[in-house]
Amino acid sequence: MDKLIEKIELMQNPTVVGLDPTLELIPTFLKDQYLNEDLIETDYEYSSAVARMFFDFNAQIIDSIHDIVPAVKPQIAMYEQFGFNGIAAYINTCHYAQLKGMIVIGDIKRGDIASTATAYASHIKGTMINKKEFDFWKEDFVTVNPYLGIDGVQPFIDACEKKDKGIFILTKTSNPSSADLQDLLVDGEPLYYKTAYLVSKWGERAMGQRGYSKVGAVVGATYPEQGIELRKRMPHTFFLVPGYGAQGATGKDLKGFFGQDGGGCIVNSSRGIIGAYKNDKECTEKDFAVAARKAALNMKKDLAESF
Amino acid sequence: MDKLIEKIELMQNPTVVGLDPTLELIPTFLKDQYLNEDLIETDYEYSSAVARMFFDFNAQIIDSIHDIVPAVKPQIAMYEQFGFNGIAAYINTCHYAQLKGMIVIGDIKRGDIASTATAYASHIKGTMINKKEFDFWKEDFVTVNPYLGIDGVQPFIDACEKKDKGIFILTKTSNPSSADLQDLLVDGEPLYYKTAYLVSKWGERAMGQRGYSKVGAVVGATYPEQGIELRKRMPHTFFLVPGYGAQGATGKDLKGFFGQDGGGCIVNSSRGIIGAYKNDKECTEKDFAVAARKAALNMKKDLAESF
């Protein structure tokens, strides 16, 4: 978490770009190049073509923004839907972003019982084979689901400590129906306050040097009042904030998510950056990476007014 | 769900075998065969060797049990820790089990906001590329995490309807700390009752012909009293019950999980079956698949006394 904070300060930009490609978001010229049906036929060839196309798209975005944006957050579902070739594109994307100096937040939202959570924790902890350690995933942070309680989370916290990496635990998510469970009243307070309490408590075991724990929280930008309340309740918890841009939130909504030090928060935008070329009249689709950089700079400016 | 019920009735066996290989569980002779360090060197070769070894192990288990056990439940975390090669072994395992006539429950515990949940739902719905549909995952059911509410679940329910497949939503999990969130009191009742209510309600939209919805629930065998209570509250919800065997529950603990029709429930055992050779004095490790069949027959007998 300290490294993330330093990178944000260096770039004066608390932004993470969500690398969530879809076939709809990919420019036509790339689809023509990779998904030429004269050249592909089998299931394997189709998923391999999509995987290579997604990586090409992501790499161009990363090349265009790596000097102004501290982190990327690939959402693994977007890759997973194309099977193991899709997963390969996810891992290659993570690796490429790391090589370009960016911090990688793997949005995997895993959560399971103890022995299985230990296997998932290999995303940041690495995997042992014949007493050799391998890093098959190339992520610096991952997101974690808290529904199974501490023994589903502890293996990730252990991995954070061992590898100086971090996690973000779902606390109040940005989607409309997050209320179904998260807002149920427990002792007169919404459930996500309990989650917030647990996340803070679990995080005490893994404090960094800069006042924030390696155990962060996911708090949706679409709920600004809840964000203010959670910031008060979780002064040492770093927030990963999705929901900016395409999901509706703006910089003004986010003031309360930042701590008194003006930090403690990184804001994600996905479609608003990587699909910016669709709404940028000055750019053709071939300039999709240029449009992404412009959109990232606009977001930086918008956020600067909020913290 | 109807197909699962018919298969259980045909085999008179409400058992699912968890295909959760680990390096510790794999017999030494297989490790010597695949992980020969004279032949493997790169990260790719190591993960590929593990992937092929896991598939070989699983395929022998499947060959040995497919005529007496209706379903398998591979836990994706065990494969995911070996990167995309591991994922390939997971998919190959699912596919092989389907080819052998078994029903495949992918234990993936995914859950995310709407657009992302739609991507995850491709596990059972398939994926469209250039107006062609592909099934990259080969699963009949998947497990789903409810923390994000209905818009994280709806895409899976839609997929169930479209493809005549099913899901199991985490309700009361088998691990010790499931109480951290699931047992918090909401209106004087534990949270998992609310989850149970939501799962039942969501499931009404996807009823099968045999009295049970395509939307099932995960209810841990390690909490027998809670199982009885949930069975009363969810008469039309099929239960996937982990926690038998290695996690401590026995057939006697499970009576209350079954419905009045003696059905409505499938019980998982993983290590107790696939690692049975380690405790079977009549079998050498080369007979691991024979030991698995014996253990599966013993489990069938134990369960027969409970329903």
Treating each run of at least 4 consecutive H or I residues as one helix, how many helices of chain A? 13
Shape type of chain A: globular
The percent of residues in helical segments of chain A reads 40-55%
Total strands of chain A: the figure is 12
Poorly predicted runs of chain A are: none
N→C terminal distance of chain A = 19 Å
Largest sheet of chain A: 8 strands, parallel, barrel
Description:
The structure is a homodimer of 307-residue chains. Chain A is α/β, with parallel strands linked by helices. The first copy, chain A, has a single domain, classed as Aldolase class I (TIM Barrel, Alpha-Beta Barrel), CATH 3.20.20. The first copy, chain A, contains 13 helices and 12 strands. In chain A, strands 1-2-3-6-7-10-11-12 form an 8-stranded parallel β-barrel, surrounded by 6 helices. In chain A, strand 4 and strand 5 form a beta hairpin. The longest helix of chain A is centred in the N-terminal third of the chain and has 23 residues. The first copy, chain A, is globular and about 60 Å long. At the A-B interface, helix 3, helix 4, helix 5, helix 6 and strand 4 of A face helix 3, helix 4, helix 5, helix 6 and strand 4 of B.
Which key features would you list for this structure?
homodimer; 307 residues; alpha/beta; TIM Barrel; eight-stranded parallel barrel; 12 strands; 44% helix; 15% strand; Orotidine 5'-phosphate decarboxylase (chains A, B)
